[in-house]
């Protein structure tokens, strides 16, 4: 909670809608006379005369929210969620039927399931699966018995190639829309779960295969074919004007293309391959400098050309993603890459786009990869997004190559760019060959694929039928439960044309009805929600023994868990449908526990299950809305319908038979055994009850039902008998909690009604008070206008502005009382009502969870009625509760029933059967909270009982005073002829004279010590240390306050010395130095100066203090031989350390860095020079904070110097400490870098880079990224 509001709850804004409904009722009541306020009129005001709501069931524009102004409306309280769930399940059923069809292998590609952060792996596989040459060389690989797998961490190349072959074969042949084979490749490559770069992964995998395939007996040919597929050759040429020419040829797997500042692919390629002038290059032939040019060019183009787009840059915020849109063509000429050397031209003059890798996300370090790929066989474009593969309506890219220089329709608005051009990360082009379309790859031999083929077919044949069966069964269960709930709510609904008398209407909290529907929805959804109802660990450890039923239940649960674990371990993982198969097996296991037709009835089993559930340690099985729960749950308001029973599955078809429940056999019948209820079986209503919350209905001050909750829409009017049945069904119980702290628990016997408010309980006293409230507010409004008029006439009524004599009989009223008149009147009325409302409280409708947490609840069985067990009748009446007489005395006649295992049936009188059970009126008037009365105009009473001198007063006429005091029982009446309190007047005069005298004494004291202050200020610190007369120390803060003392101040500063003393009450701060000039320190003074200050301050304190004040002497700090005596060394060292650290703690200050050329001796000499011009040259000022890391400083230096952060040579001084890469994650505070260091800046060494280095040069194997260090790709 924030400190700003002082720990108080923020004031809730009043609900304007609720206030409008209540004001409407008040307006209707205040227009009535006393005789017209009847119970029938109260029913009308409470809107209990409304008809059935029909706003939600219309086909044209139905209302989307509940009608709060109709207490009978139960629409839109949560029922729509259950309807949506049924609709969704119907769609799932239709979807399951569609899934039974095999995938069209020619028109619908299969996807790859992403089992973690492996979208980059799926992206690579899906692109290269659509390269027929690459797929064919994978199919052509054969395992060899002569191959010995290398030890870890090297990659097992044979296993990796066979997994790739299995993945490609599955993608080509599976009838499912997706497969989960990626996990096999992830495991063999030992990839971690971190997100990685898709292009980097492909480069590392190809490099690893090129290293490892030659070591396999059958791998050399595969490695050669793979290398020729995507590896080309580039040459870096340096040509001098003298004719000297040098050329460096290197292999090229891909083009690393910088796109910053370019909007088309051709422009970026032109910048990459253009000639570059080398100003610092010296020709070895002519020894001339600056006459050479450099150009990169392809000398051999591969069949598959990979272009990696550099979408990262360094900014002040670190490594950021570059969101530059790039227009790329669907076809591009080969001369765009091979520009100079045409000695080895490619077989085809054009390259066609066949794949685009998209990086989705604005962060450079994370995101999601997916691909847009053109099928090599039907020439259609598809979006491959992990397991989802969809056809594209429009191919990506542009039809022809474009350039920003020639394209007149250049896009300026980012929103006009397609998504694929704004987020493209990799482009793949295939050389246009003469043979179109490309032939299908030849499959591997059957002995290598037979296991995968059989596994897929077996899974597909059985799984699709099981999915349909599961969907149909779940839909049946949902519809059945929905019908039961619908019937219950239909019986709950009532209206003016339906009920006969007010006692037929009951009130339930709207939140309770919504809660029941929401939790029914959650249980129907099958979500496993845990309520905080488990016992603490200490209570669990106390239990050392278990009952026989608990031991059996625990054994059953353990056995089922083992069976599920074995079943899951034996499941195949060849397809995404494996997960669905697990669900089917669990569903079959649940279905096997269904109650057969010849089993006992659901009501009997429900009772036995509830008895077992009373033991908290009984293990229960998490089940959903399937047949077990459905057969055992029946709301009491629903008649038993015909049951739809499912028979054993035959050939994948689901058959149902219709039957009715058979009656349970008598327990006394011979040769019959009653099966014990399994503790795993729970009725749906019991599981819903465990999730429900408690709810409340306010009780008015007369112990009855106020109409306010009805007007506000907080309660709903329903039929009483179905409402009580529903509360019993969900194990709700009721208690009453009064505001005086007293709790009443109505008797919990099952055959007595649950206490609930009805329309007959509407409080007529509250209705009358509401009418009076309306009349009171009208009168208060008129009188408040009168008060505002009095305040406006301040010039003629105020005693200060108009001191003239007032007419006889006029009364003075405090201005403060007039300003708060309305507030005081309302507060006084509320106090009166509170005193007349002794029975105000709350009706709590407690859920099962709340009942367990409340130790005062009686420990009784569930409120659900048993429909089969016979109860013994008892002649004795159990506990009878009688209402008391008017004096408030209570008599309780108690009779103890017979001790029996079966519950007893009380003898209920006919009158008790007609009326609900009422709580006992046990209120003690003496326990009622007393409220303080509001006294009007009390501000004018002083401490002496007379008229206050300091308050502003307004005069009012006798009529005005009578109107004002009519709202209050106590008023302080002050006649205008009465005089103010003389004692208060004299105290005010004395206080004014005392302050003026104190100011004069302070001015005199300031003059006397002025010379002493000048002497102390003129004394240098060096003289203080060697002056033997310096014997005392005083706080510098005190001296600063004395210097700033003005003539208007009435009180001088005190000599506290606290800021110089540590927790041990010893001095721990020293004299003034360069490090502590901004904080308090010790100032030395002579004994005479010390005595002067002590005497002067003491005189002023004695003059301004009361006679009972006890003065304390200030702490004395002694100085001997220029040293502070009794210095606390430990605290002094800590203070020095803290002061030193404070230098390096700053916020948004300048850090100065000077760029120095080490080859220029003059530049190095000026780096440490004292001249301002020498220091300011090549100086950078960067705003930083001490909490910033060194890497952030280097990133900002990168923007200014274009030196990469990891390449910067940053020193503390010239030739001093080097801040290398190992310090990048340290903060500036950790490195002790001070701000505003323009006199001693950091030194950044200017570096010279060789112009012959190529930005896209790839020599040998690339160094592994950090995420691939521990994988098989790095070895």
From TrEMBL:
Lineage: Eukaryota, Metazoa, Ecdysozoa, Nematoda, Chromadorea
Compartments where located: Nucleus
SUPFAM superfamilies: Cysteine proteinases
GO cellular component: cytosol; nucleus
Molecular-function GO term, any one: cysteine-type deubiquitinase activity
Major site of localization recorded for this protein: nucleus
Organism of this sequence: Caenorhabditis brenneri (Nematode worm)
A GO BP entry: protein deubiquitination
Keywords assigned: Hydrolase, Nucleus, Protease, Thiol protease, Ubl conjugation pathway
Catalytic reactions on record: Thiol-dependent hydrolysis of ester, thioester, amide, peptide and isopeptide bonds formed by the C-terminal Gly of ubiquitin (a 76-residue protein attached to proteins as an intracellular targeting signal)
GTP-binding among keywords: no
Designated name of the protein: ubiquitinyl hydrolase 1
Record has Hydrolase as a keyword: yes
Basic and acidic residues composition-biased segments: 405-417, 534-546, 873-886, 1259-1268
Record family assignment: Belongs to the peptidase C19 family.
Domain of life: Eukaryota
Record-annotated USP domain positions: 110-432
Compositionally skewed regions (Polar residues) per UniProt: 668-685
Region (Disordered): 392-417, 524-601, 637-685, 849-932, 1251-1275
Compositional bias (Acidic residues): 580-589
Biased composition (Low complexity): 569-579
Broad class of enzyme this protein falls into: hydrolase
InterPro entries membership: Papain-like_cys_pep_sf, Peptidase_C19, Peptidase_C19_UCH, UIM_dom, USP, USP48_dom, USP_CS
Record-listed E.C. numbers: 3.4.19.12
């Amino acid at each position: 909670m924030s400190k700003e509001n002082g720990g108080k709850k923020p004031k809730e804004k009043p609900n304007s809608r609720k206030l409008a409904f209540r004001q409407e009722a008040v307006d209707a009541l205040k227009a009535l006379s006393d005789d017209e306020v009847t119970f029938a009129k109260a029913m009308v005001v409470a809107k209990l005369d409304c008809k059935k709501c029909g706003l939600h069931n219309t086909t044209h524009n139905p209302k989307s929210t509940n009608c709060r102004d109709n207490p009978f409306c139960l629409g839109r309280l949560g029922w729509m969620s259950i309807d949506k769930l049924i609709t969704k399940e119907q769609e799932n059923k239709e979807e399951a039927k569609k899934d039974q069809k095999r995938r069209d292998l020619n028109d619908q590609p299969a996807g790859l399931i992403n089992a973690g952060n492996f979208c980059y792996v799926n992206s690579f596989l899906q692109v290269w699966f659509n390269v027929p040459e690459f797929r064919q060389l994978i199919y052509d690989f054969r395992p060899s018995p002569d191959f010995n797998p290398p030890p870890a961490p090297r990659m097992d190349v044979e296993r990796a190639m066979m997994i790739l072959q299995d993945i490609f074969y599955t993608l080509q042949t599976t009838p499912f829309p997706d497969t989960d084979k990626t996990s096999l490749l992830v495991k063999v490559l030992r990839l971690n779960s971190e997100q990685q770069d898709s292009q980097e992964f492909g480069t590392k995998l190809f490099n690893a295969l090129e290293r490892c395939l030659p070591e396999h007996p059958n791998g050399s040919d595969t490695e050669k074919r793979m290398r020729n597929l995507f590896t080309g050759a580039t040459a870096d040429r340096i040509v001098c004007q003298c004719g000297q020419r040098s050329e460096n040829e290197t292999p090229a797997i891909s083009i690393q293309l910088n796109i910053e500042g370019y909007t088309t692919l051709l422009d970026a390629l032109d910048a990459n391959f253009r000639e570059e002038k080398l100003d610092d290059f010296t020709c070895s032939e002519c020894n001339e400098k600056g006459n050479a040019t450099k150009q990169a060019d392809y000398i051999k183009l591969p069949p598959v050309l990979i272009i990696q787009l550099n979408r990262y840059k360094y900014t002040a915020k670190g490594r950021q993603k570059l969101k530059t849109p790039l227009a790329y063509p669907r076809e591009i000429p080969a001369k765009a890459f091979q520009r100079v050397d045409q000695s080895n031209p490619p077989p085809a003059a054009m390259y066609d786009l066949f794949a685009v890798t998209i990086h989705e996300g604005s962060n450079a370090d994370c995101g999601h990869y997916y691909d847009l790929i053109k099928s090599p066989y039907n020439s259609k474009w598809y979006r491959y997004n992990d397991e989802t593969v969809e056809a594209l309506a429009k191919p990506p890219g542009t039809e022809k190559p474009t350039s920003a220089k020639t394209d007149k329709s250049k896009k300026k608005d980012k929103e006009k760019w397609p998504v694929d051009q704004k987020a493209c990360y990799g482009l793949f082009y295939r050389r246009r060959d003469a043979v179109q379309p490309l032939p299908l790859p030849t499959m591997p031999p059957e002995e290598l694929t037979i296991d995968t083929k059989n596994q897929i077919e077996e899974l597909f044949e059985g799984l699709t039928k099981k999915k349909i069966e599961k969907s149909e069964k779940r839909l049946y269960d949902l519809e059945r439960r929905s019908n039961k709930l619908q019937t219950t709510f239909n019986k709950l609904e009532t209206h003016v044309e339906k009920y006969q008398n007010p006692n037929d209407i009951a009130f339930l909290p709207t939140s309770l009805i919504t809660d029941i529907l929401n939790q029914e929805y959650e249980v129907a959804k099958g979500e496993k929600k845990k309520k905080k109802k488990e016992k603490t660990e200490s209570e669990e450890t106390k239990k050392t023994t278990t009952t026989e039923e608990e031991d059996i239940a625990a054994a059953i649960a353990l056995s089922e868990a083992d069976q599920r674990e074995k079943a899951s371990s034996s499941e195949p993982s060849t397809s995404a449908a494996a997960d669905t198969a697990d669900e089917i097996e669990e569903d079959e296991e649940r279905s096997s526990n269904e109650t057969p037709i010849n089993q006992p009835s659901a009501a009997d089993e429900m009772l036995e299950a509830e008895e077992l559930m009373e033991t908290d340690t009984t293990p229960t099985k998490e089940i959903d809305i399937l047949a077990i729960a459905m057969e055992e749950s029946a709301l009491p308001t629903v008649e038993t319908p015909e049951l739809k029973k499912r028979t054993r599955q035959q050939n994948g078809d689901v058959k149902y038979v219709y039957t009715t429940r058979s009656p349970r056999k008598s327990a006394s019948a011979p040769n019959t055994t009653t099966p014990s209820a399994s503790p795993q079986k729970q009725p749906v209503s019991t599981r819903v009850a465990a999730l429900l919350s408690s709810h409340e209905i306010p009780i008015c001050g007369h112990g009855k039902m106020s109409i306010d909750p009805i007007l506000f829409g907080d309660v709903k009017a329903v039929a009483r008998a179905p409402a009580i049945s529903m509360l019993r069904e969900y194990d709700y119980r009721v208690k009453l909690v009064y505001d005086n702290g007293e709790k009443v628990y109505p008797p919990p016997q099952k055959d007595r009604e649950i206490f609930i408010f009805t329309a007959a309980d509407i409080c007529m006293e509250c209705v009358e008070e509401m009418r009076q409230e309306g009349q009171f507010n009208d009168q208060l409004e008129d009188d408040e206008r009168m008060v505002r008029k009095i305040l406006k006439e301040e010039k003629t009524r105020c005693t200060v502005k108009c001191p003239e004599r007032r007419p006889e009989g006029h009364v003075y009223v405090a201005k403060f009382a007039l300003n708060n008149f309305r507030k005081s009147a309302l507060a006084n009325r509320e106090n009166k009502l509170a005193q007349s409302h002794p029975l105000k409280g709350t009706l709590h409708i407690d859920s099962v969870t709340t009942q367990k947490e409340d130790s005062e609840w009686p420990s009784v069985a569930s409120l659900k009625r048993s429909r089969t067990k016979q109860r013994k009748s008892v002649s004795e009446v159990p506990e009878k509760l009688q209402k008391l007489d008017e004096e408030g005395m209570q008599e309780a006649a108690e009779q103890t029933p017979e001790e029996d295992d079966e519950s007893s049936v009380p003898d209920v009188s006919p009158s008790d059967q007609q009326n609900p059970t009422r709580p006992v009126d046990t209120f003690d008037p003496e326990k009622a909270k007393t409220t303080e009365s509001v006294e009007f105009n009390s501000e004018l009473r002083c401490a002496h009982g007379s008229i206050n001198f300091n308050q502003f007063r307004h005069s009012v006429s006798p009529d005005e005073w009578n109107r004002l005091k009519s709202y209050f029982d106590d008023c302080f009446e002050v006649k205008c002829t009465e005089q103010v309190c003389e004692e208060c007047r004299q105290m005010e005069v004395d206080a004014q004279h005392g302050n003026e005298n104190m100011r004069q004494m302070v001015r005199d004291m300031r003059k006397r010590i002025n010379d002493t202050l000048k002497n102390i200020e003129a004394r240098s610190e060096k003289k203080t240390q060697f002056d033997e007369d310096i014997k005392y120390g005083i706080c510098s803060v005190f001296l600063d306050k004395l210097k700033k003392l003005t003539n208007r101040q009435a009180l001088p500063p005190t000599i506290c010395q606290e800021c110089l003393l540590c927790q041990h009450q010893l001095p721990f701060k020293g004299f003034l130095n360069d490090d502590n000039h901004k904080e308090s320190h010790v100032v030395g003074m002579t004994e005479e100066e010390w005595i002067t200050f002590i005497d002067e301050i003491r005189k002023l304190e004695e003059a301004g203090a009361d006679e009972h004040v006890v003065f304390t002497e200030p702490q004395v700090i002694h100085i001997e031989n220029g040293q502070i005596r009794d210095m606390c060394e430990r605290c002094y060292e800590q203070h020095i350390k803290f002061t030193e650290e404070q230098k390096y703690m700053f916020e948004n200050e300048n850090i100065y860095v000077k760029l120095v050329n080490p080859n220029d001796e003059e530049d190095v000499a000026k780096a440490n020079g004292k001249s301002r011009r020498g220091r300011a040259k090549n100086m950078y000022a960067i705003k930083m904070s001490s909490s910033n890391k060194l890497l952030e400083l280097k990133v900002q230096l990168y923007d200014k110097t274009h030196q990469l952060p990891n390449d910067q040579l940053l020193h503390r001084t010239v030739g001093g400490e080097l801040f290398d890469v190992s310090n990048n994650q340290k903060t500036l505070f950790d490195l002790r870098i001070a701000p505003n260091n323009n006199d001693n800046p950091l030194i950044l060494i200017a570096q010279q880079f060789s112009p012959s280095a190529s930005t896209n040069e790839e020599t040998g194997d690339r160094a592994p990224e950090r995420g691939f260090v521990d994988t098989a790709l790095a070895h």
